[in-house]
Design goal:
Structural class: mainly alpha
Radius of gyration: 23 Å
CATH superfamily of the largest domain: Citrate Synthase, domain 1
Number of domains: 2
Shape: globular
Largest sheet: 3 strands, antiparallel
Strand order of the largest sheet: 1-2-3
Strand content: under 5%
Length: about 425
Amino acid sequence: MSALHDKLASKIPAMRDRAKEIVSKYGSEVISEVTVAQAFGGMRGVKSMVCETSVVDAQEGLIIRGRPIADLADRLPEEIFFLLCTGDLPNEMELQSLQAELGDRREVPEYVWDVLRTLPKDTHPMQMFTTAILVLERDSIFHKRYAEGMTKQEHWEPALEDALNLIAKLPALAAAVYRIRFEKGDLIAPDATLDWGASYAQMLGIPDPSGKFANLMRLYMTLHSDHEAGNVSANTCHVVGSSLADPYYAVSAGLGGLAGPLHGLANQECLRFVKGVQDRFSGVPTEQQLTEYVWELLKSGRVVPGYGHAVLRVTDPRFTAFHAFGKRFCADDPLFTIVDMGFRLIPDILIKHGKAKSPYPNVDAGTGALVHHFGITESNYYTVLFGVSRSLGMLSQLILNRALGTAITRPKSVSMDWIEKKVGAKAHPPVSSPA
């Protein structure tokens, strides 16, 4: 057994006991209320899930297992996955054990490549990526173990096996999507000496003599790994996984949500905005030109991509980490220069405009410019990068939910007639006639 398995096995009994005690003590307590506006508005802000891996604080940003993401920016993605699952950062032995596990499991069956190569040449990269994951489902250990029969307490172990098998293969799958879809040449075999993020960078085939691109991929995979359980990708993965569908089905479903324009395409939209500025001014604008351009955008009723956040009311610490990377390695890049200028100017413009709940940059404001700088100019691939990283969070949440025996998700829905009759009558009671 791996060090990750052993660490989880040592922690799960106490975690189960704690969950039972909380339900026993506080099961009847109310933790949230739902307004009609929230029911129509995507349930935003309704506290209705339990997520141990991370929380998002309005003032501090993403906190993974009690640690602010800013304190984890220099950690390897493998360390983050171990932390997400167990609550502890791995020691050197545990990290080496996990890396060896992933190395042993990374080989992708040839039939997966056959399927990808037969897809139409204009297939979207995310469709290729989720297809590859679904093709691998035939090897699901959870699926086979469930069919053979196992206790509920055992569910987490084959879920962990599936998670490790999938995580090990994700870099090769995503790199193959890039090379096949954009006709970059033969697939590149992984280098056994490299860590998970660097191996992904190497298999993409981007020239990287300095190792800076590998560093960006490590940072990207770490910073995008998790973001509570309520975002579309994690929530979708959770709902599908709650039916005891195996991790391949659940992650594929979650990635389908990530592919939506209101979720994982944000970095692509931000890059389009930055390139639009560059095209408008035939290069890097002056501060006055960018200020006037942003005001023009706002007065036309549009928004500034990359600014604002559903929860945060400060600059996203993940943006801060990416920005620091760009200042160090891409400071002269025209697109990053525009990102940097925007960071200095746009928040004050949005504050003066007065309509933005949060005028500060989120994680997507600069990532596209950084990836573009190193040679991945095909922006419709960027969501695949996001998907590789977010799978770490989706899978760690799934493992823990299997360990806790979390119930199938089945909220109650009501009709508009029900709201008008029940809620409307309560909000506007009939007026009594005078005697």
